[in-house]
Every structure is written in structure tokens, then in C-alpha cells.
Design a protein that fits this description.
With about 120 residues, the chain is mainly α. The protein is built from 5 helices and no strands. The chain is elongated.
Length: about 120
């Protein structure tokens, strides 16, 4: 029973870590470099889909939690779009200034300094 509890905790931790979008913490230049490196890669997703269909595994997975979680992972993350006329003090400056580490400069430290 204790082993089952440990296994459940381990699975929960792995699922949580796999669901985190670490890109939001990375500097913009690192993200751009990674996208450039990944742009030329090819996947064998269609081949796998065909093999799953041929063997009948795909039909048995329809509606299963495994298939649904795989589809969620391949779905693009929802982008937050905030429409506001006013820039908050801690928001990135609209001029697009970037610090040396690649993070955006806050409005209060850029154009909002004298406001």
C-alpha cells in the first residue's frame, strides 16, 4: 500500500513537471535560438499514426486518458492577450527595451521613470 502511494506521488510529480511551460522563464534570445534549432527537425508522427491504425491500437485508445493527454501535449498553449490602454508599472515597456540578460525592461525603469 505504501509503495502504491509512492508510485502515485511520483506519477503526479512527473505529470506536473511535464505540464509546466518553462519557456516563460527563459530569456527571449534562448527561446529564439531553440526555435531556430528545432525548425529543421522532422517527426515520424504520421508513421506512428499509421502503425497504430494498422494494428488496431488506435481504435482501442479512442477516448482513453492516454490519448487525451497526448493530444493536450500537442495542442498549442493558449496565449494570454491583455487589451489595455494603460501600461502597468511592472509590465514590460512598450518600446521593447531588453536587458543584457534578455529579459524585458519594466515600464517603471524605462519610460515610466519620470511619470
Amino acid at each position: 500500500m505504501f509503495q502504491e502511494l509512492l508510485q502515485t506521488i511520483e506519477v503526479t510529480i512527473v505529470r506536473t513537471l511535464m505540464g509546466i511551460d518553462f519557456a516563460q522563464f527563459a530569456p527571449q534570445r534562448v527561446i529564439q535560438q531553440a526555435e531556430e534549432e528545432l525548425s529543421g527537425l522532422q517527426t515520424n508522427e504520421s508513421q506512428i499514426e499509421g502503425e497504430l491504425t494498422q494494428t488496431g491500437v488506435k481504435a482501442s485508445l479512442e477516448g482513453s486518458a492516454v490519448l487525451q493527454s497526448a493530444q493536450k501535449r500537442h495542442a498549442p498553449p493558449a496565449q494570454k492577450t491583455v487589451v489595455s490602454d494603460k501600461v502597468g508599472r511592472n509590465d514590460p515597456c512598450p518600446c521593447g527595451a531588453i536587458k543584457e540578460d534578455g529579459t524585458p525592461v519594466k515600464y517603471k525603469n524605462c519610460h515610466g521613470k519620470n511619470v
